[in-house]
Design a protein that fits this description.
167 residues; alpha/beta; Rossmann fold; 6 strands
């Protein structure tokens, strides 16, 4: 895995997505179509590794799409980047099951800390940006973790693909 062929994701958790991330809504269906198109485009631009922070919302949608694309894009790889080793366990049973399934199918899992420590999510975002050359995100201008990650990516010269305007 090298920076030139690595892309990362950033986007909000469900409550900050349109329709609060309701996957039955037309807005989220459209977002997923656009994530798929952006990942495919990145693949054809030479990207093979897709780093994902594994949060419920945009990240989970993107991770599942990368895994689905493995059927047609044989050398595409999902890299799950956890802020701490059991971060995925702090969700509802249904979300936890989905995250566990994605992590189990990921080509690599990187855990940056054994336990939760203040700022570990920012450290995860920084790690992904520092090791990527493109970012695919859903950045709506609101403050928070997505804003921090998006702005850090811009400061560090990553190519940006913002899907906010796409739905």
């Amino acid at each position: 895995m090298n920076k030139e062929t690595t892309c990362c994701f950033t986007g909000p958790r469900r409550p900050r997505l349109p329709m609060e991330g309701n996957e039955l809504s037309a807005e989220i269906a459209a977002l997923k179509v656009n994530i798929r198109a952006s990942v495919s485009e990145a693949y054809y631009d030479g990207f093979r590794f897709f780093m994902n922070g594994m949060a419920d919302g945009f990240d989970l949608f993107a991770a599942e799409i990368v895994l689905e694309l493995k059927a047609e894009l044989k050398d595409i790889a999902l890299v799950a980047v956890l802020p701490y080793s059991e971060a995925y366990k702090n969700h509802s049973a249904a979300v936890k099951k989905r995250l566990e399934s994605v992590i189990e199918k990921a080509d690599a899992v990187i855990s940056l800390s054994e336990k939760h420590i203040p700022g570990c999510e920012h450290s995860r975002n920084k790690y992904m940006v520092d090791n990527s050359s493109r970012i695919i995100g859903y950045y709506n201008g609101l403050s928070g973790g997505t804003a921090h990650c998006w702005n850090y990516a811009i400061e560090n010269g990553l190519e940006t693909v913002n899907l906010y305007e796409s739905i």
